[in-house]
Design goal:
Layout: E1 12-16, H1 21-26, H2 28-37, E2 42-47, H3 52-56, E3 63-66, H4 75-84, E4 88-91, H5 96-104, E5 110-112, E6 125-126, H6 139-146, H7 164-174, E7 181-185, H8 198-212, E8 215-218, H9 225-234, E9 239-241, H10 248-257, E10 260-264, H11 267-274, E11 279-282, H12 288-291, E12 298-301, H13 316-323, H14 327-345
Parallel strand pairs: 1-2, 1-4, 2-3, 4-5, 5-6, 7-8, 7-10, 8-9, 10-11, 11-12
Helix pairs in contact: 2-6, 7-10, 8-9, 8-14
Length: 346
């Protein structure tokens, strides 16, 4: 009787995640490919605390660890990484602080894309993304990090699952509002260079309520309270302002329950796309071919011929390009998405 063949060791992989909501979601297709390639791997995702709930809704990591807040000691998380004994660490951010924990935990292979001095000195290998036709989107940078030299051309879109108890709680909270529920996110962390004017959102919201008999739910951070309230008021009595009043899971639940989402180029846009919610997004001079939302039932409204990945927080050109988009275009784009999505939400 021949001896049993010993099973191969399970790879233990650390992924240091990105620090912005939209970037984190755009990295998900690459992590899905990594998971498909290493089906038995034990994958840990290290992220800042605010994004831990996002990765908890993803099937990709086996566990999620949180970085300490800025200024706090890294010692506890370094100790946790050391005890987990990783074979390899992929560092997606370009920052020194993101690279420090796997370095201090003495993970033998630390791989990242080119960043800044002295951050790159903490890596054992630097992998450069490969440009080419059909590979302009940011997602290919992460695919090249995980699969160097393969020049992958396709990927599966991100997918998230909102915990059902959270969905039921938010469904109950919205139950008094007539359907269809249309979520509106008039803010953007990048500032006015990525924000369609609030007064145009308000005009569009009022028209959508009149045309559909439905409701507008405005969403955003506490700092976006003013534009969200302006838009919700324009939709009265069928407007509800939830800006600053939701957790990330609750925000995701509202988006997943919505028949459509109207938004700027923002993290919320990427979140809505990952949840499968039909959406209409406003773009100024940002290039959607590089950082556009991933998924189906997406309409991009943009008039600018100049497109770039790097947009200043204050840009007259970007603001002018956004103002060139008329409310009538937004109204029709949302109406075009509603019939199928209304049926989907029943």
């Amino acid at each position: 009787m021949s001896p049993a063949t010993p099973s191969a060791p399970v790879p233990r992989i650390l992924v240091c995640g990105l620090n912005w909501l939209g970037d984190a979601i755009m990295s998900m297709p690459a992590l899905q490919a990594l998971r498909d390639h290493h089906a038995r791997a034990d994958i840990t995702l290290l992220t800042k605390p605010g994004l831990a709930p996002l990765w908890a809704m993803s099937p990709l990591p086996d566990r999620v660890l949180s970085l300490p807040p800025p200024g706090a000691s890294l010692k506890p998380v370094v100790q946790s990484l050391h005890e987990l004994v990783f074979d390899i660490a992929y560092i997606l951010p370009h920052s020194f602080r993101s690279t420090l924990p796997p370095f201090l935990a003495r993970i033998s292979r630390r791989i990242g894309m080119p960043g800044h001095f002295p951050r790159d000195l903490l890596l054992t290998e630097i992998r450069r993304p490969v440009a080419g036709p059909g590979r302009s989107h940011q997602v290919f940078e992460y695919l090249d990090l995980f699969f160097p030299g393969e020049n992958r051309r396709t990927f599966a879109p991100p997918r998230l699952a909102v915990p059902e108890p959270v969905r039921e709680t938010m469904r109950a909270k919205l139950s008094a509002l007539p359907r269809p529920w249309i979520s509106v996110l008039p803010g953007a962390a990048r500032g006015t260079s990525k924000q369609w004017p609030a007064e145009r959102y308000a005009e569009t919201a009022a028209a959508l309520v009149a045309r559909t008999g439905g409701s507008i739910i405005t969403l955003g951070t506490k700092s976006e309270q003013a534009p969200c309230q302006q838009v919700a008021a324009a939709a009265a009595p069928n407007g509800l302002n939830l800006a600053g009043a939701t957790t990330l899971e609750e925000l995701s639940a509202v988006l997943s329950l919505s028949a459509a989402t109207l938004c700027n180029d923002s993290g919320g846009m990427h979140l809505a796309a990952a949840l499968g919610t039909p959406l209409v997004a406003f773009y100024g001079i940002t290039n959607p071919d590089q950082t556009g939302p991933l998924g189906g039932s997406i309409r991009i409204l943009q008039h600018s011929e100049r497109r770039t990945r790097d947009v200043p927080r204050q840009s007259r050109q970007a603001q002018g390009a956004l103002r060139a988009i008329e409310p009538a275009e937004a109204i029709q784009a949302v109406l075009d998405l509603l019939p199928g999505s209304r049926q989907r939400q029943e």
